Please model this.
Amino acid sequence: EIVLTQSPGTLSLSPGERATLSCRASQNISSSYLAWYQQKPGQAPRLLMYGASSRATGIPDRFSGSGSGTDFTLTVSRLEPEDFAVYYCQQYGRSSWTFGQGTKVEIK
Amino acid sequence: EVQLVESGGGLVQPGGSLRLSCAASGFTFSTYWMHWVRQAPGQGLVWVSHINSDGSSTNYADSVKGRFTISRDNAKNTLYLQMNSLRVEDTAVYFCARGRLYFDYWGQGTLVTVSS
Model:
């Protein structure tokens, strides 16, 4: 099973700052199979990015994704107040879907 | 508008059973793969089970294999999760989600608490 490790565990930033979140896979995965989600307290996750770099419907362009192989990145260019949340990466492989443990982006 | 609405959660004793339902609307349910994903209190997301569009193929996380059964009724636009031999560690919010490689729509979740 492919394990996804996200870092850092918590990111303390101020509104307007840039956030860079990392997701590392235990083995190579196709970028087509890598997605990112945002989850706020008490809410369901929301799909942000799929195929590593494609924004989901309605996602603002301050969110971007990149990476290949084992290393993937989610970047929020300028944090808005509504962006403070927990972010998860997720991959598909061999009829199994796995999530990273999450990165919490909190207000500094 | 795509909607997924879970129901059936509640308090159950260890060793007990529960059946969750997920009512789908706003899309052609019979053409989509569907999943259950759970989240223990204060913890991250864990994929539980998948079913393909016609119900002929299913997959499970090792932690629930042999205890949980996913199924669907395309005539009723409903996804199910039959959970047997429940354990304390199965306590979580259970979400249904739509998708193949990733999950583009999610329900709001239903809480399952396994406790004596």
